[in-house]
Amino acid sequence: MTPENVRNLLLPPPTEPGARGEAFASANIALCKYWGKRDEALKLPLTGSLSVSLGKLGTRMRISPADRDALVINGGDISPESKAGKRLFDFLHLLQGTRYSLRVESENTIPMGAGLASSASAFAAAVMAMEALYGWDLDYRARSILARLGSGSACRSVLPGFVEWKAGSDPGGMDSHAVPVAPVWPEFRVTVLTLSDAEKTVGSTEGMSRTRDTAPLFAAWPTQVERDLPRIRRAVLDRDFTTLGQTAEQNALAMHATMIAAWPPLIYWQPETLATLHKVHALRAEGVEVYATLDAGPNVKLLYLRESDAAVLAAFPTAAEV
Ligand code: DP6
Q1: What spacing in Å lies between the alpha carbon of 67 and ligand 1's midpoint?
Q2: Is any atom of ligand 1 closer than 6 Å to the C-beta of 28?
Q3: C-alpha 97 – ligand 1 centre gap (Å)
Q4: pLDDT digits (tens, 9 = 90+) for 36-68
Q5: Burial level of 65, CB count in 10 A (0-12/13-18/19+)?
Q6: Which of 104, 120, 150, 270 could form a disulfide with 91 if both were Cys (CB 3.0 to 4.6 A apart)?
């Protein structure tokens, strides 16, 4: 099965676009990470994963017909021929099933390329803006499968709250999509510490295939997820923050261990990253229950409960709650 086959199973034959489509999708942070594919073209994961939505942080996208493809991100023109531009327009034309030119205006409320999953909210917003532009009527499964074809983690950004991406077993990936786990947990906090908004050097797609191909340690990763995913799911349902935090932090560090063991090595951390992790551990030793998670970049996300708001803000004055 190809991405075009999946498109044709889920969407009607190509038609003329409407006047304009607009949508917002939240970014998401994985508590149990997706790292490694079983099918590159369909972006089918080796394992399931589980994330929490970042609510107001995400991507708003407007798409309208145009004479030629044009892309504006945060008010600045980006060439449709750039790497990011090509990836987005290839995806939009895949969804169209043809090549009507489009003008895309996208606004991110998160730094791009800094390991804050901005591609997740962008591709999810793209599916929903195209749905509005073409008047499709999709359910969340179809939205999730289509968003996955743009970027794996985008399939989790079509739902709010705590979301699981089922790895599925269908070779075409028709069962590999997001499902809701629980709506937002009012006391649960995620804050993003932007330590560096520099573009990451190796993107997730390349990073995960390099890890799979060159790190013998990666063989242990599916076993790690097999243990962590049900634990985190249960912890969300039981509102067992200690189990959730411990498992999420260990899961993120285990993923980074596989990255570091790749060749050439993938060391996404900057000195501030390590300093922040030590600070988190020192806070825990003082009795403030806060945990850390990291994606394919230098930034650290803090996980804690409302009762620790003041202590976390005192320790990390730049912490931006989401
Ligand atoms: C470390 O979804 O960006 O953030 O499917 O190749 O587009 P592609 O990768 P992407 O990978 C995200 C990896 C991660 C972990 C996660 O979000 O689960």
Answers
A1: 33
A2: no
A3: 25
A4: 999 999 999 999 999 999 999 999 999 999 999
A5: middle
A6: 150
